[in-house]
Specification:
Layout lengths: L2 E9 L1 H11 L20 E4 L6 H11 L14 E7 L2 H25 L8 E7 L6 E6 L2 E5 L5 E5 L1 H4 L5 H15 L5 E2 L11 H7 L2 H17 L3 H10 L4 H43 L7 H43 L2 E4 L6 E4 L1
Parallel strand pairs: 1-8
Antiparallel strand pairs: 1-3, 2-4, 3-5, 4-5, 6-7, 9-10
Helix pairs in contact: 7-9, 7-10, 9-10
């Protein structure tokens, strides 16, 4: 028997921005091998964003629906996303017409759940270009509240919307009841009392999150220690142009910085290769019973969050390399000093 699957995830402002390229298929190439771009034209929306980014759409809905953002800050939850699906046995059995009705009923359920309303949904897109049909529905978690003057308002608050340890269980129960009453022969996803989900901490260990985070912190410290353009200008003003001074205060620090940067880059590449093991782990999970598909969806989303962290590290590396090139050019143009790295990036020679 197939299961009625609904999975909820919460996102900060920055994470919300990262959702759009995947959900809306803005990119021409994806690392996810399950995406068949030749079938992307078959995807369709039940709620199409009017703006070209989720942030702009979010701001538009805030203004249009007069929603209060309360005390939201950078790490607050701005939106939530539900993924609604089942398995291929179910979809192949009911056919294309009923599959479309299934997602229409899924959409209707979410518009009515806890008063979300269609007006507070950023997007609802059905993906038919992956292995299993599914819908991504991104919404603003809005609750009824009162302002300081005691007036009734609609406020964004994921913590209040999902208040209670059994809040997700209630969501699954109500979804199962609703969708089966609409004529779809499904079972409720079975609960695993010993392991309901992969914990955030276990997921971070699995994807080398802590190693990657440390690498990012090290790169930031490296950035602070590098010789800047202002440092070189100060050298021009107050130091004697002796070979000893130039070597000790300019050349050797740059060589040390170059070697350290190469090492940090190699370490980061090593962590990236380790992260691929997490994807293999996820593939193995798919072999388990279909009632574990809920956990697989969560794993896939958290892997994507890890990739966001890795991309941030690459951005820092790129910035450091660009600044280093400017310093090398300055040394060559002003002092006639050229730094040459050998093939192994381990030895630096000075040509004057």
């Amino acid at each position: 028997m197939s299961y009625a699957i609904i999975r909820n995830e919460k996102y900060t402002k920055d994470e919300m921005i990262q959702l759009a390229p995947h959900n809306e298929r803005f990119k021409k190439k994806y690392s996810n091998k399950n995406i068949d771009l030749s079938k992307t034209s078959q995807n369709y929306h039940l709620k199409l964003p009017k703006e070209n980014t989720y942030l702009k759409e979010y701001n538009r809905l805030i203004k249009e629906n007069n929603l209060s953002q309360g005390q939201l800050h950078k790490n607050s939850i701005y939106v939530c996303e539900v993924i609604l699906t089942s398995d291929n046995t179910f979809f192949n059995g009911i056919g294309k017409k009923e599959t479309k009705r299934y997602f229409q009923e899924c959409f209707k359920f979410m518009t009515e759940y806890k008063g979300i309303g269609k007006e507070n949904i950023l997007t609802a897109v059905v993906h038919l270009d992956e292995e299993t049909p599914h819908m991504h529905l991104v919404y603003i978690p809005v609750v009824n509240a009162k302002d300081k003057q005691g007036k009734n308002i609609r406020k964004i608050s994921a913590s209040e919307f999902w208040k209670g340890k059994d809040s997700y269980k209630k969501l699954q129960n109500q979804f199962y009841k609703y969708i089966t009453e609409k004529g779809f022969d499904l079972e409720r996803g079975k609960e695993n009392t010993n392991r309901e989900h992969i914990s955030t901490d276990d997921m971070k260990k699995l994807t080398n999150f802590y190693n990657t985070k440390q690498l990012k912190e090290n790169l930031t410290k490296q950035k602070e220690q590098m010789i800047s353009y202002e440092d070189v200008q100060e050298f021009y003003k107050y130091e004697d142009f002796t070979k000893e001074n130039i070597d000790r205060k300019l050349i050797y620090p740059i060589i040390k910085y170059n070697n350290s940067l190469v090492k940090q880059n190699n370490d980061l590449l090593l962590e990236l290769s380790k992260t691929k093991n997490a994807k293999k782990y996820y593939s193995d999970l798919q072999i388990e019973n279909s009632h574990l598909m809920n956990e697989n969806q969560e794993l896939e989303e958290k892997l994507r969050m890890n990739n966001i962290e890795l991309n941030a590290c690459y951005k820092i590396i790129k910035e450091l390399l660009n600044k280093n090139k400017k310093i090398e050019k300055l040394l060559k143009d002003k002092l006639g000093i050229e730094i040459i790295n050998d093939k192994d990036n381990n030895i630096n020679n000075l040509n004057k």
